[in-house]
Amino acid sequence: GEDVEQSLFLSVREGDSSVINCTYTDSSSTYLYWYKQEPGAGLQLLTYIFSNMDMKQDQRLTVLLNKKDKHLSLRIADTQTGDSAIYFCAESIRAGGFKTIFGAGTRLFVKA
Amino acid sequence: NAGVTQTPKFQVLKTGQSMTLQCAQDMNHEYMSWYRQDPGMGLRLIHYSVGAGITDQGEVPNGYNVSRSTTEDFPLRLLSAAPSQTSVYFCASSPGTVGSKETQYFGPGTRLLVL
User: Fold this and answer.
1) CB A94 within 8 Å of CB A32
2) Out of A8, A30, A102, whose CB is closest to B43?
């Protein structure tokens, strides 16, 4: 079946790097995404990676994809208090059309 | 562009009442979806639409109806509200299924409490 799993919480100190991990089960994924949700708001796309890529870097964000192990990670360099939010991993799969599977979200706490 | 808008932001219903959650997008996106977000469960797909006049069920469709008479609007109807439908509801739209067009744009959410 299709499943995306993430740890529920991560706590880091301001200025440190944060690494949020995600595993997925469906090998037919085309794109994998990281979304950010701030309190009381909807989900906002942070970054995405095509399934045939290993790494993507976008300013403070680095996405690593290990397709063999079905493991995706998001590294946030120099984490700031404004990065405190819930981060959702998601995969887009070919299942008779349009389907995106979301993880339960990782809540990132940044301590000053 | 306003993006994806949802109304209302908050709603309290009594068990058995019906209501419609509104969703509109002004980006001319073909694909629109409704999700519910419950603690510790991520987002679960309720219904989705691949274009005007076409809708299909998602993972948790029971108790909800949708219609897509225009490209812009995708309302979600609760037929007879139950406490199990207490949740945060998100509407999303997407340009299509090819390449980065699979990216979804989310509305701000509707918080629903069913007593």
Assistant:
1) no
2) A102
